Each structure stands twice: as structure tokens, then as C-alpha cells.
């Protein structure tokens, strides 16, 4: 037998072995696997490749939503993973300190410092509990109260920028000055995060010098998502570098950037320095163990603070303004209430005067986060024992989670779920008697209204729920309440619907101009699927790209100084 024949025979045997193995694996996953009974696309049942593909594409949240629309409230989206879209599943999986579940190995793709997970990525429950106890000092009422002047300073800068047509302005086809709202809210939230966490803002609202960090931060989060969906990528780095090179490189740069920021703050110590969040992190101790954070833990937490502290608030604020700008009846009513409550914009501060005096304000914020949640995908958990979730038997070792985007559009929880209706949050509670909409609420059966609002609350979780929910929720609401109220007091605004911006092909307020596609895709390449409105987005949706946190680019909005009455 010649050498060539030997090689051919060997290759044939290897191919037969691999083919046989894959056939057996496919047979097992389709027929004998514990999750075989649950519906889902054939390829999803066989491989995690579709999940990684949609994570890379940025439409993972829409992919889950399409699956839930087709298959129902429980979907098998990967061989060992199931997604739910109900409040019952949300409560079972995430509420309390459930012994049946633990964070999945998906979160191993997140740590900025190997071996030192953050409060977000810590999988071991005792480790997370210790970190959260320490972090709670930084997010205490005292700490948040001391941060208010710095938040207000940035809100004032944002409001000034919205009305300044000489800066960060795009001219519409008719010559109107417009603003790319997602960029301005990103500058704002990044500056607030810098002030509160590191004692110094990044001055993005007033200067372009540090704005490069936005794309780097988004790509770092995107890399974490892709690698979290397919854990082998960390063990096969050459594959990740080949297919996902630019987000891998940006993640490296971001880790270096966040370390530099944190190290600079640590070097300052406390001498002559105010008590920012980093002060509390450096000095707080766990009341149970007496231990605080060591240096590598501080570096890991700083990485988290930059992403979570900036991205989620920016998404929520931009989304709220977008939906108000598309629904002038709601915007005008909210504006009327804000201007009736306050004589001067300087009177507007975070607190009960806003939330209790103007309940429509929080309702508008909640409704925008329902339609465009800042973290739109699935937060996976691994079952540590056999469990029954919302009537579905899930075996030990399988990953489960709730698709936030899908649950927030589930008709089981929301009447007319695809419509923007902030009054859904008020029908079962307080409605301003002076509102022209109060009669609408009074015409609804009281019991039915209470049931509607309670049912909506049960299926609403923009910050997740339970012990692993977002620790910065109160801070985020504080920023959003004050910023939205001040903007409504100072400006009349709308989403620009001129030309392609109003065609609906790209979504209201979006088009295919350079403003919307710059930087998207590898090397800034324009991808058609990345520009046009996608299946799962309504025509008026504030569009998100799922990079774990929601990446956004839009919409185009016009702001005009309010006329004095």
C-alpha cells in the first residue's frame, strides 16, 4: 500500500469517526436529551452556533422574541438552554435567594481581572453576597444623597447641549438642527458615572477628547456576550481573534482603560477628595467578615461600573425621550404637568415631589424601559437540581432564563403590548385629577384596572429582580426622573420624520446615512441587516443592538426652547 493510499484511508477513517460521533450527538440531542420535548428550531437544538451568531449580529433579543412568537412561552434556543417569557418564570428563577439556581458559566466571559469576578459576574453565591454587602455602602442613601449635586451639574450640561445648535448638531433635509439623542445621553451618563465613581467626569458633554471610550466600552460588552454564549472561545483564542477580532481588541483596550482610570483614582487616596463611590469601595468592609476589596477586586468592579453605570442609564433616557417625541399627546400632557408643578427649572430636583406629584413621569420612564429595556436579552441561570418552572420540567444542569424583550411584549401581561401606553401603569393606581386622561382611568372598572397594572408589574423587569438585580436601580431612577422632567420643562421636542427618517423602512427617526452606520460592523462596514428595521421591532421602536447591554444609535430628534406662556 502506497503512502498516499495510507493517508487517504486514515483520513477516511477519521471522517467516518467524526461523522458517526456527530450523528450520534445529533440523535441524542433531538430524541434523548432531557430538553428534547421543548420546541425550537432544529439547528438551535443541535448547536449553540445560532445563539453565537445572533449575539455577534446584535439581534439576539429579537431572535428570542421571534422564537417565542412562533413556539410559545418556553423555547429551546440552544442544546442545553431554555428561554421563558412569563412573569411566573421570572419570579421562580430570579426572585429571592433560590437554592435551585446559580449563575451559569456564561458569566465567566465577563471578569476584567482573571480570578476576580465583579459583583455582576460572581457565580458563587457566598462570593456575590460578600461583594454586594461591600458595594451596598457605595449605593446607600447617604452616598446617593451626597452625589446629587454632581448629577445635577451634568443634567444642566445635557439640557444646555440640547438647546445649543452650534454643537453636536445634524442638519435635517429641511434645514432644521437635530440631535442624535443616543449619543448625547451616552455622553451624559458617562460623565455622571465618572463624577460619581471616580471623582472626575470625562467631560464628554463639553469636549470630544474622551468620546472614543464609548465605542470601546460597547465592543467590550459585546465581546463578553459573544464569549459568554460560547465558552470554548476563551480556550481557543485564535478562533475568537479570527472571527471577532475588532471587539476582542477593543475589549483589551477597554480593560487597560478602566484599570488606568481606577488606578489613578486609587492613587489619589482620600486627601482633599470628596466621598465618591470609589471612596466607599476602598473603605467599606463586609460586616460579616470585616474584609474589604483588595486591589484586583477594585479593578474588576471599576470595569463593571463604567459599563453598567453608563450604558443602561443612557439607553433608558434616550428611549424615554424617543417615545415621548413620537407621541406628542403624552409629551404635551407630561409637559403640562411638569410646568404646572414648578415655576422655574431650578426647582426641579430628584425626590418625592417628582415621583408622587407627577406619577405620569415615572409611568413614561417605565413604559419606555418596557419597550426598550436596557438589558434586553436573557440572564442565564443553571439548574442545580430538577425543577418545575411555570409547569415545565427542567432537569439538573440545564440553563434557563427569561427573555426580557419577549416578556415585555407578552400579551399575557400587557394589554396591546406593542403600543406605547404609559397610562397602563396608572390605571390601577394614582392618576392626576387635573389630567384630561383621568376620566379615561375612571371609566375603567376598578378591579380590572388593578388587575391590569398588577399583571403588567408581574411581567416587568428592566433591572431584573431578586438578590442579583441591579444594585444601581435607585441611582438610575434618580437620574432619569430629574433629567426627563427638566427637559420637558425647558423644551418642546419631537422625533424627526423628514425624508427617510419617516419612511418606516429603518424605523421612525432612523435612516441609512453615515450618522447611523458609522462604526457598525467590522471596520465600519455597512451591513444591510444592521440598518433596516428588523423583524421584532415595531416601526416606532427605540432600536437596540444586544451587546448584553443595549447598544443604540438614534433616533434623530429636534428640540425647541419652550415658549413662555
TrEMBL record:
Transmembrane segments: 6-28
Subcellular location: Membrane
GO MF term set: heme binding; iron ion binding; monooxygenase activity; oxidoreductase activity, acting on paired donors, with incorporation or reduction of molecular oxygen
Pfam family, one: p450
Co-factor(s): heme
Tree of life domain: Eukaryota
GO terms for biological process, alphabetical: verruculogen biosynthetic process
Entry GO CC: membrane
InterPro entries to which the protein is assigned, alphabetical: Cyt_P450 (IPR001128), Cyt_P450_CS (IPR017972), Cyt_P450_E_grp-IV (IPR002403), Cyt_P450_sf (IPR036396), Cytochrome_P450_monoxygenase (IPR050121)
Residues at which heme binds: 470
Keyword Transmembrane helix: yes
Keyword NADP: no
Keywords of the record: Heme, Iron, Membrane, Metal-binding, Monooxygenase, Oxidoreductase, Transmembrane, Transmembrane helix
UniProt similarity note: Belongs to the cytochrome P450 family.
Protein's name according to its UniProt entry: YALI0B21824p
Amino acid at each position: 500500500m502506497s503512502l498516499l493510499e495510507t493517508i487517504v484511508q486514515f483520513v477516511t477513517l477519521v471522517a467516518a469517526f467524526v461523522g458517526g460521533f456527530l450523528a450520534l450527538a445529533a440523535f441524542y440531542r433531538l430524541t434523548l436529551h432531557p430538553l428534547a420535548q421543548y420546541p425550537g428550531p432544529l439547528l438551535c437544538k443541535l448547536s449553540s452556533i445560532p445563539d453565537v451568531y445572533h449575539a455577534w449580529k446584535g439581534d439576539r433579543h429579537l431572535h428570542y422574541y421571534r422564537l417565542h412568537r412562533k413556539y410559545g412561552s418556553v423555547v429551546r434556543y440552544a442544546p442545553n438552554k431554555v428561554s421563558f417569557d412569563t412573569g411566573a418564570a421570572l419570579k421562580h428563577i430570579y426572585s429571592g435567594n433560590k437554592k435551585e439556581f446559580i449563575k451559569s458559566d456564561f458569566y465567566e466571559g465577563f471578569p476584567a481581572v482573571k480570578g476576580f469576578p465583579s459583583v455582576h459576574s460572581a457565580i458563587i453565591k457566598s462570593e456575590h453576597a460578600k461583594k454586594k454587602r461591600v458595594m451596598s455602602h457605595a449605593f446607600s442613601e447617604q452616598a446617593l444623597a451626597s452625589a446629587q449635586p454632581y448629577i445635577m451639574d451634568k443634567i444642566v450640561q445635557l439640557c444646555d447641549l440640547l438647546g445649543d445648535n452650534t454643537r453636536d448638531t445634524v442638519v435635517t433635509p429641511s434645514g432644521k438642527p437635530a440631535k442624535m439623542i443616543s449619543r448625547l445621553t451616552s455622553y451624559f451618563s458617562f460623565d455622571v458615572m465618572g463624577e460619581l465613581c471616580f471623582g472626575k467626569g470625562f467631560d464628554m458633554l463639553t469636549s470630544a477628547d474622551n468620546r472614543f471610550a464609548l465605542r470601546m466600552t460597547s465592543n467590550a460588552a459585546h465581546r463578553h456576550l459573544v464569549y459568554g454564549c460560547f465558552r470554548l472561545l476563551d480556550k481557543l483564542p485564535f478562533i475568537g481573534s479570527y472571527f471577532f477580532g475588532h471587539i476582542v481588541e477593543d475589549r483589551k483596550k477597554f480593560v487597560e482603560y478602566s484599570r488606568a482610570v481606577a488606578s489613578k483614582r486609587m492613587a489619589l487616596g482620600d486627601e482633599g477628595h470628596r466621598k465618591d463611590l470609589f471612596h466607599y469601595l476602598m473603605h467599606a468592609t463586609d460586616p460579616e467578615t470585616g474584609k474589604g476589596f483588595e486591589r484586583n477586586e477594585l479593578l474588576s468592579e471599576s470595569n463593571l461600573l463604567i459599563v453598567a453605570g453608563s450604558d443602561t442609564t443612557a439607553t433608558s433616557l434616550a428611549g424615554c425621550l424617543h417615545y415621548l417625541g413620537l407621541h406628542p399627546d403624552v409629551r404635551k400632557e407630561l409637559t403640562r404637568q411638569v410646568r404646572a408643578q414648578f415655576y422655574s427649572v431650578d426647582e426641579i430636583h430628584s425626590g418625592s415631589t417628582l415621583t408622587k406629584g407627577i406619577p405620569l413621569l415615572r409611568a413614561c420612564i417605565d413604559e419606555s424601559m418596557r419597550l426598550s429595556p436596557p438589558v434586553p436579552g436573557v440572564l442565564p441561570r443553571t439548574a442545580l437540581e430538577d425543577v418545575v418552572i411555570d409547569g415545565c420540567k427542567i432537569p439538573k444542569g440545564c440553563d434557563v432564563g427569561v427573555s426580557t424583550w419577549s416578556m415585555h411584549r407578552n400579551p399575557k401581561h400587557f394589554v396591546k403590548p406593542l403600543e406605547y401606553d404609559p397610562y397602563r401603569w396608572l390605571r390601577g393606581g394614582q392618576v392626576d385629577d387635573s389630567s384630561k386622561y383621568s376620566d379615561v382611568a375612571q371609566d375603567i372598572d376598578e378591579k380590572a384596572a388593578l388587575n391590569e397594572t398588577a399583571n403588567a408589574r408581574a411581567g416587568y423587569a428592566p433591572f431584573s429582580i431578586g438578590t442579583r438585580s441591579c444594585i444601581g436601580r435607585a441611582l438610575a431612577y434618580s437620574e432619569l426622573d430629574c433629567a426627563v422632567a427638566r427637559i420637558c420643562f425647558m423644551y418642546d421636542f419631537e422625533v424627526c420624520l423628514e425624508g427617510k427618517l419617516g419612511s418606516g423602512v429603518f424605523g421612525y427617526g432612523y435612516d441609512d446615512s453615515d450618522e447611523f452606520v458609522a462604526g457598525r460592523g467590522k471596520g465600519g462596514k455597512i451591513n444591510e441587516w444592521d440598518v433596516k428595521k428588523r423583524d421584532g421591532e415595531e416601526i416606532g421602536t427605540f432600536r437596540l443592538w444586544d451587546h448584553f447591554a443595549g447598544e443604540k444609535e438614534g433616533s434623530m430628534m429636534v428640540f425647541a426652547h419652550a415658549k413662555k406662556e
